Amino acid sequence: MASNETSDWDLDVLIQKAMDAQRIYAAFSQEQVDEIFRAAASAAGEKSFELAEMAVNETGMGVVKDKVTKNKFAAEFIYDRYKNEKTCGVISYDPSRRLKIVADPVGLIAAVTPTTNPTSTAIFKTLLALKTRNGIIFSPHPRAKKCTTAAAKIVLDAAVRAGAPQGIIAWIGEPTLELTNALIQHHLIQLILATGGPGMVKAAYSSGRPSIGVGSGNAPAIIDETADIPAAVSAILLSKTFDNGVICASEQSIVAVASVYGTVKAELTTQGAYVLNEEESAKVGKIILNEKGAVNAAIAGQSAHAIGKLAGIDVPANTRVLISEEESCTAENPYAHEKLSPILAFFKAKNFEEAVDIGVKLTSLGGLGHTSVLHTNTENQQRVDHFALKMPTGRVLINAPASQGAIGLCNDGIAPSLSIGCGTWGGNSTSENIGIKHLLNYKTVAENRS
To answer: Pick from 205, 238, 218, 259: which is nearest to 369 by CA?
Structure first.
């Protein structure tokens, strides 16, 4: 949409066109919106493989088959969840209370997207915008600009064919930090949807525009002595290997109580993990973070075997995850942080209570508000409640893989989403999974009952 020589003036034109399209779209009926939503979701689902290949080729991160799954999730699960939801005009009426609720779009949305999940996030945000009669403009991550804009264009073209106004979805073709800042600070932007690193989320909240930012994750997985250990390890490895660990909800550490620590370790090896020795752990530890203390981009979304080679160690080619046995859960230990790759820290706790305390400490290192997991026998709900009360996370998952559970694949009580709020724990405005209700204004029409 924007040329390689995009200037502030070009951005003004782009924003104005999107604003004009949104004003037209805001008058569409529920029937028109639902047909556009259906057509756009269908088109995105059909192009899932093509977009997944583009994303892996452009970013060098992740696994094609897993990105296909994420693209289909963003298209099909989002459509199925919201296809029957009312988002236009009067959406509810309670005659006994003489109360109506009227839904209005928020207007024009600025969307910032990450390099880790570029196409699925673009599909997700465009579909939410279409269902709620909002316009949306993307500022893609520079290292994922081609695949992100390709996803947005697929949805736009399908929406226009179904009757949406041209320009309802737009993007900056050559994104820069300066253009992103100009977009999110523009006076015509009514809402910012920021998915990315803490710096970008902070910039969104500092823009002066209403913002929904989502935080980073550092999810611990607690395994107590009552857990089904083979099932727990299977769930953790399923989650951690999915798209080579780039989903921010994925487990970053395992904390096992001492009485089953050895059994968990043996099961990890049986299921394809590689437990590093002390020398190997030191080598891998040196490449986890960069000089700024953030995840080293060279390991993000890479396979366990590739990370081993990068660290100068030889691990079997079929290794699923690298495991490092750790004791320190302080900021100085690189293994205690988010790793966005198939690397797991492995901690031993004296008992369940200490395991939970270690989980809380780990979560405080960049994962506040996001996700935590407990593997236990759920007949003991006291343990579930203790864990839920102690953990400062918006998603508290029980016996579930974190990546899949946090985005809404394991329990329909969690809304399907690729933008996960972390609440005030993580400096976000909501602790929920982002959905259509966050992109609507609501009018309460109340008759006098006195």
So the answer is: 218
DSSP strand pairing (89-94 vs 99-105)? antiparallel
Determine whether 293 is exposed, middle or buried from the number of CB atoms within 10 Å of its CB (0-12, 13-18, 19+). exposed
For residues 187-209, average pLDDT: 85
* Half-sphere exposure for 435 (CA within 13 Å, toward CB): 20
Whether the per-residue pLDDT at 6 is higher than 60: the answer is no
Element at 163 (helix H, strand E): none
Cα atoms in the Cβ-side hemisphere of radius 13 Å centred on 441: 11
What pLDDT, on a 0 to 100 scale, did the predictor assign at position 119?
A: 97
pLDDT of residue 5: 45
Is pLDDT at 213 greater than 90 in this prediction? no
Question: Can you tell me the mean pLDDT for 182-209?
Answer: 86
User: Where do the domains of the chain lie, and which CATH numbers do they carry?
Assistant: 8-214+434-446 (3.40.605.10), 219-410 (3.40.309.10)
CA–CA separation, 340 and 322 (whole Å):
12
Nearest to 336 by CA among 307, 367, 304: 367
Catalytic residue among 88, 147, 248, 329: 248
Regarding beta strands 393-398 and 369-375, do their DSSP bridges make them parallel or antiparallel, or are they unpaired? parallel
The answer to whether residue 248 is catalytic is yes
Res. 373: pLDDT tops 70: yes
Closest CA to 36 of 81, 91, 79: 79
Cβ(372)–Cβ(395) under 8 Å? Answer: yes
Nearest to 131 by CA among 140, 139, 123: 123
pLDDT at 206 over 90: no
Residue type, 287: I
Per-residue pLDDT at 34 exceeds 90: yes
Whether the Cβ atoms of residue 273 and residue 320 lie closer than 8 Å to each other: yes
CA angle 442, 447, 450 (to 5 degrees): 140
pTM (2 d.p.):
0.94
Where would I find the H helices in 26-97? 30-46, 48-59, 64-72, 78-82
